[in-house]
Amino acid sequence: MKSSRWIPGQANTSLGSSNSKDRWGPFGPQYFFQISIPLTADCLSDCSREILVGRARLYALIREFFDEQSVLEVETPLLCQRTVTDPMLDPFVCFYDAAGHPAKLPLYLQTSPEFAMKRLLASGVGSIFQISKAFRNGEVGRHHNPEFTLLEWYRVGFDLETLQNEVEALFCRVARAFDFQFAVERTTYCEIFEKYLGLHPLESSLDALKARAEESGFYDGQALCGDHRAHWLDFLFSCLIQPELPPDCLLMVSRYPDLLPSLARKAEDDERWVERVELFLGGMELGNGFHELTDPVEQEQRFLKDLAVRKQEGLTSPAMDDRLIDALRLGLPDCSGIAIGLDRLLMILTRSGRIENVLAFPFLRA
Amino acid sequence: MATVSTSEFKGGLKLMMDGDPYTILENEFVKPGKGQAFNRVKLRNLKTGRVIERTFKSGDTMETADVVDTDMQYLYSDGEMWHFMVTETFEQYAADEAAVADARKWLKEQDECQVTLYNGVPIAVTPPNFVELKIVETDPGVRGDTSGGGGKPATLETGAVVRVPLFISTDEIIKVDTRTGEYVSRVK
User: Fold this and answer.
1) Is the pLDDT of residue A309 over 80?
2) DSSP secondary structure letter of residue A365
3) In chain A, whose CA is at the least distance from the CA of B38?
4) How far apart are CA B30 and CA A68, in angstroms?
5) What residue of B is the nearest CA neighbor of A286?
6) What is the pLDDT of residues A224-255, one digit of tens each?
7) Over 90: is that where the pLDDT of A101 sits?
8) What is the signed CA dihedral for A32, A52, A113, A265, rounded to 10 degrees?
9) Fold identical between B67-126 and B130-187?
10) Contacts made by residues A224-227, CB under 8 angstroms, sequence distance 24+
11) What is the pLDDT of residues A6-24, one digit of tens each?
12) Residue-wise pLDDT tens digits, A110-164
């Protein structure tokens, strides 16, 4: 098998035209020339040059978009003394070890930059965005790589509805540049459950949820979900709704059940729902946003609840992020924020089937 | 027996489930950002050939099945069992009717085929993709007709019946694709 590759260092003397249209021609500036090497070694990248250019272009478009909106680009640490308590996330742990240092200090690679960014918001910087690496242990698959890239942003004074408008504007900008056509649809968690399953996520009985899974041939939900409604809702959503979603439609699902609250605040009109929005495109989960919880007491309770679940399930119990709680105490401005998986977005924009296709060196070659 | 965790699941891995050996056809890791991780797996039962879909909680372990595909030479059938031999070691194995199944109609003595052993016992036999077999009975050949359109049935030395072009006659040797059961060419 032969594949066309580019090699760095074989420079064309010109760095391409300064004209921005030429700069983003189909293959971008010709710094590299194409040669053929047999596809044998793990040391080289399998990623096509077109995709590498696509990623650079995507980042440039995002930065341009937020620059126009006067949203500040920030950088927060990836290696932190605290981490998430979410029982569904497994962070990488490493140790700071210096000669003479009294005890090995555990440090966590961040599963998302959200806590640090909220501490910045509480410090009064205003609206911010970040393109950041995030790390999640044990997650490898067609749509998962343990190290991946997130775009996360927070808008001070925005409610979830206004944030969704901004998401739509950003997607339109990016899609246009990539010649990608898509529709946009907004719905609620409850509506989508009723539409695809004929069930109400909170009012239908647990037995009805179980029966619905079996009806569609998913017989081992019980072993996975037990009697946890939250697990059953996720299971039904992943197995029976997600695969049926229209392929080229950006679907924004909001008003999640309070069983799946994460860091979202409760809806003002009905305590059974939280102000959380999830984005889906091409059958993939692409992003997760909240009208952020600003109440330190409620946040601490959710952390404690998470830790109790972790303990019960025999998982490690890291200390909760007290610095985030303190920041909330000092006052997080009313804001909404969202994180979007950029590797997955790039998969969609370049019509790639697997996350490895858009990474220079995926997990097994990293 | 060795165990494997869901993180080691991949196509071709053989597992024991409900007392039967299975091979993984497809494995998909599913993990909502804020939800529980699991694996959606498509598997084939190696005894019955049936394909099923299962979900496994990520981190669950399963027992691997002691299943190996071995190249063997077909020796003979005694009417009840089909006998095979590993040519390097001269080890012999006897496969019953259930294991040989549809492969039997392509088996010619001394042909190489693949025998799937489960705990040392043959559970499936895969004939070579192409076999060359002699025609023992077919309608008389029609000279000049090389179009192959339509064709006629021909019985082969192993008992299999395939459609062949009209110009083919009894005692000729033909090449057949065992995966489709179709005539490929005449063997000179």
Assistant:
1) yes
2) G
3) A224
4) 37
5) B33
6) 999 999 999 999 999 999 999 998 999 999 99
7) no
8) 150
9) yes
10) A224/B36, A224/B38, A224/B55, A224/B57, A225/B36
11) 444 443 333 333 444 444 4
12) 999 999 999 999 999 999 999 999 999 999 999 999 999 999 999 999 999 999 9
Please provide the CATH number assigned to the domain covering B130-187: 2.40.50.140
Residues of chain B with pLDDT under 50: none
Q: What's the one-letter identity of residue B2?
A: A
**In this complex, is the C-beta atom of A354 within 8 Å of any C-beta atom belonging to chain B?**
no
Domain boundaries of chain B, sorted by first residue: 3-63, 67-126, 130-187
Contact A138 B58 (CB under 8 A): yes
Best mutation target among B38, B39, B43, B62 (most A Cβ atoms within 10 Å) is B38
Task: Please report the beta strands in A71-163, taking only residues with DSSP state E, as ranges in sequence order.
Answer: 72-73, 79-80, 93-96, 105-109, 128-135, 147-156
pTM to 2 decimals? 0.78
Judge whether A353 is closer than 8 Å to chain B, CB to CB: no
On whether ipTM exceeds 0.85, the answer is no
Instruction: Give the span between the Cα atoms of A46 and A6, in whole angstroms.
Output: 10
Among candidates A138, A223, A234 on the partner chain, residue whose Cβ is nearest the Cβ of B35:
A234
- Distance of alpha carbon A208 from alpha carbon A225, whole angstroms: 14
Question: What would the pLDDT profile of A263-308 be if each residue is shown by its tens digit?
Answer: 899 999 999 999 999 999 988 999 999 999 999 999 999 999 999 9
- The matching CATH number, chosen from 2.30.30.30, 3.40.1010.20, 3.30.70.270, 3.30.390.50, for B3-63 is 2.30.30.30
Residue with tokens 């020339």: A33
Q: Is B159 helix (H, G, I), strand (E, B) or coil?
A: coil
CATH class of B67-126: mainly beta
Beta pairing, strands A273-281 & A284-291: antiparallel
What percent of chain A has pLDDT above 70? 89
Residue A210 and residue A231 in contact, taking contact as beta carbons nearer than 8 Å: no
**What is d(CA A272, CA A279) in angstroms, rounded to the nearest whole number?**
21
| A77-106 residues touching B, CB cutoff 8 A | 86, 88
